[in-house]
Amino acid sequence: MPTTTTTVPRAEPAERAAAALQIALPVGVGILAPSLTPDAAAYAGAGYLVGAAFTGANYMNRLGRWANRLPGIDIARAHRDTLGIATITTGMGLALGQLGGAEASEALLAGALEPTTVPGILSLGWWAAVAFTGWRLRRVFGRQKIQTETTEAVPANTGDPRPVTLADKMIAAWGRVISDPKNGKHKNQVLSDVVIYADRWEGRITAALGDSVNVSKETVSSLFGRPVEDIDIKYGTHSGEARITVWYTQRAELDPSTLEGAWKRVRARVLPKTHLEEVGEDVNTGGQVARVVADDDLDALPRVVNVGELAGALRRSIDLVSYEPGRRDPRRAIIRVMDHNPLEAGHDFPGLDSLVATPGGWVNIGKIVSGFPAKIQLFDPKLGALHVVIAGTTGSGKGGTAQMISLAYHANKMAQIYADPKGASNPAIPKMAAYSGLTKHGALGAMRLSWWVLQHRIEEAARMDLKNFEPSEMRPYCATLLDEAAQMLAPGAPNRKEAVKIVKDGASLTRSLGMPWVLINQTVNLDQLGGEQAIRANLLAGGTWIILRTDSDQVNLGDLPPGFEGLDPSLIPPVWAEEDDALVYDPTMEESDPRRTFGLGYIAAPGGRAGMMRIDTLEDATPHIRQENIAAPVDVPWWGDEAQMEELAQTPIPGFEEDSEGGTDEAGGRSFAGVDLPKVTKELTSEERVLAALRDESDPLYVDMIDQGDEIDPDDIDYVERGQLLAACGVPESTFANTLNKLEKAGKIHRIKEGKTSKVALGSRPEKADDEAA
Asked: What does the pLDDT read at residue 182?
């Protein structure tokens, strides 16, 4: 088949006209602006402001869906850069012409002839911008050659002239092979109105009156030598007419490396009955962004979208795909496919003042992959304090996130009670807390104090008929942070039943009393958070969930809260993907150390923008701590009395005393018929610890005499120095004196004074010792 080469414009006439206008308008406005009448100048200024607003919104990709119906919107979006430059240069010409008159316009247009003057420099810059616009648009005005293989047309009627254009040749070939009334494949289905572009040609197919267009793509493919997938045939206003488009180049929706092309796999495997709209470049990620829209026969997008499968269908890793369900419209979502994740570079913490909450209680703790801030709500003016759940495995940034939440409380002068069973998970938080309990024993004590603060505020609210919590300097918000929550709440944890009771009361009763809870754990499985549905329900309804990379322990994805459906946190990679991964080791190539995805995860807050996010980078919060911001719940009468506070921390809450039902056993109070479970040692009170230490430090013979109730001569009493006993029992000194007083009043010990020190012994004071003391 012979090949015909023809030259065609690179762009359509409308696009060439728009490009010419962008180049000529700044110059024309600069010349005409001084001669405008006041009325004309006012209309020109108003028109410019409207055009500038549209161009600015178009440049930032902020035009709504309404703009899709505007004629030429595709040209405006394709030329957003040059339109922006042309708008600026036009505005300069209009402003100088109206404000400075002909002299200012002349300086702008001709000042470049004197480049050493200030007007000359301004004129040079202006002309450079105009010239740059023309240079950027040079391809629009160009032409290109295309080759088409056609069968040499021999007119049936030798009286007709031979076709002289490529379009005529295509129509003639069509008439001979397809629409010929006698031998055509699809008789009387005529091709007309052929228009040839740089990347395609278009035409109209018309069937005989009363017939329908039924030309197959395979026939057109055979005639013009193009693949079937490069041919589109769409019916017009009736079945007897259709529009045909034949592409010379591969279309974006057929290119598997593009979002449109990959969406074929997504439609087939992950999100059937969906299509993409508003597909565009994402300047933040270097990739593409689009709206996922349900087809007409689908009322809403699926509630659960498996992001792992979505990333696989798009041929990307999970950290390079972001899927954000619509916040209001169930038929729409936002999909981002990234060449690089903008969160990889991280973003430094801007300072304590950045965490000051809005009147609605919102603070920014990081960024969403789309560039929007990652927000959480610390409190709501009507709902009260709001809870936070943080989940993530070691190395995922869980500690850094907890530190950021604590710093947010600190920035807003909220009191904090910190419980850390591990003892040293986050050294900066105790410096901001009003009370910190470290190790399992200390953490339980901190939780008990939080429970007692809650009881005071419940009683106070009932007594004073308080409805909504109003924070003040003397009665601030008081947050309780429980780190490594599973060590206190999971099955087998010591004192589990008491700890679960405290957290359950805290999750369900504290919001209206200004006492939010922050649970920090490796997973969000229900059994790891106490196994109480009430805890989960109140945490879900009461605030924000932040889920970072979790490990294989997160086996029950059903425990994930709303907004996280379809996510598998274990799929978040532990390190950022390297682009230079080689199949064969090259010792001459320097290898880069893997960089961990610290702080990368997902956030969901009521009213917030859900999506992939990363916490602000902050190694240590200590430099940002302000002493004047460290608050305490001083509205509680006993707060500040160290002895009483320590006593409350050491004593189980009511109903969980040593001998009460369902006390502090590690097995969680479970029992089985016919099986005797081993007894688990209960946590000792401060009195028991002092007595146990005193027995250990005393002479065993003397202890036996006390146990048997023998009469003891005062000279045989074995005394232990007070300092020695304090060191042995492990009871804080602030509680030690109070404990000794209680034991002595109960007749379990007695004390004597020797010089500047005192000594302690088991048993009540003998009569002879009383006489000597007198």
From this structure: 84
